[in-house]
Design a protein that fits this description.
Elements lengths: L4 H7 L1 H8 L1 H4 L4 E5 L2 E14 L9 H10 L6 E13 L2 E5 L14 H7 L9 E3 L5 H4 L15 E5 H8 L14 H12 L3 E4 L4 E3 L2 E5 L8 E5 L5 E3 L9 H4 L11 H18 L2 E3 L8 E7 L2 E6 L2
Parallel strand pairs: 4-5, 5-6, 6-7, 11-12
Antiparallel strand pairs: 1-2, 2-3, 3-4, 8-9, 9-10, 10-11, 12-13, 13-14
The protein binds zinc ion.
């Protein structure tokens, strides 16, 4: 079924109702079919980030124009955090786990939003991680460092697991990432008995392949779902609805290996535009579902909702 505004809104009456009421839009999952999967996007809330992180390479005039177009003229801006939940046969598969209780007060809303949608988190059988940043990993434990999903199996790219455990994770760490390493190690320690490693290219679950997309972090992956023209759950390769698409060559401060992240961004944009795949962008405006088109020698994001 093609992903259009109509099919998405028709997916659930609750979703359509929520869109008429912006105050509740982020709390209500958006659900649609993709091939053999039922895919939902559930909000974990949002992050509040310094606007200065977004485009340090841009001239002040370029930055001002793009941020104005994005409605982000203040010192900080709100970055949505969109979690993907996939129903596949008897499995309920979460891609990333949100921020949990200890990152930002505006985030960590995943479990509340699942509950509000009558989705029992204890039914989640598997979790696949794109990378080990706080807003994707720290929901793995609760405020007592106990696992939030004690019965799930956790799938992590070996390169990402190894990076956060290694000395490389702490070497030359920028100030704004202080705490990321201890947080990653705390969460990884809690789930380690239930972790399965994978490599890019592996079929992590039936019809779900991991694609190497290093740069934002050393072992970052996106997940490609089979069916139709494809669907990419994009993690943090494309994090801003205008800048990431119009200027993939700019280097946001959140990327660990900036030049590698630029190459990865261009590769993924080219693939998305060529394949006409759907994209779920973790930090794009909720629910972050859309497609990518070529525009003016670069790209643009076309939201489907
Ligand atoms: Zn993120």
């Amino acid at each position: 079924m093609p992903l259009t505004r109509r099919t998405l809104l028709a997916a659930t009456a609750a979703t359509a109702a929520a869109h008429a009421l912006p105050a509740f839009a982020a709390a209500s999952p958006v659900t649609f079919r993709h091939g053999a999967f039922e895919v939902s996007v559930v909000s974990d809330g949002h992050l509040v980030l310094p606007t200065a992180f977004l485009a340090p390479d841009a001239t002040p005039e370029q930055r001002a124009a793009l941020l104005k177009a994005a409605g982000q003229t203040g010192e900080t801006y709100d970055s949505p955090t969109n979690i993907t939940l996939i129903r596949s046969g008897n499995d309920l598969i979460l891609i990333d786990m949100g921020s949990g209780d200890r990152f930002m007060p505006t985030a960590g809303k995943l479990w509340d939003n699942l509950k509000a949608a009558d989705i029992d988190k204890s039914k989640i059988t598997k979790v696949i991680f794109t990378h080990g940043h706080p807003d994707h990993l720290w929901g793995a434990v609760d405020d007592l460092d106990d696992m939030t999903l004690p019965n799930a199996t956790f799938y992590i790219a070996g390169a990402e697991w190894n990076f956060w455990q290694s000395d490389d994770a702490t070497r030359g760490l920028p100030a704004e990432r202080a705490g990321f390493v201890t947080g990653a190690r705390r969460n990884y320690a809690a789930i380690k008995e239930r972790v399965k490693m994978f490599k890019p290219g592996d079929e992590v679950q039936s019809g779900i392949h991991a694609v190497a997309t290093p740069g934002h972090t050393q072992g970052h992956v996106v997940l490609a779902l089979a069916g139709g023209d494809g669907l990419i759950v994009g993690g943090d390769v494309l994090t801003h609805p205008l800048i990431s698409f119009a200027h993939p060559e700019w280097r946001p401060l959140a990327d660990h290996v900036p030049e590698q992240a630029v190459a990865t961004r261009k590769m993924l944009l080219d693939r998305l535009a060529a394949d006409r795949s759907k994209l779920i962008g973790f930090h794009l405006p909720y629910p972050g579902v859309g497609t990518v088109e070529r525009k003016d020698g670069a790209y643009r994001f076309v939201a489907a909702v």
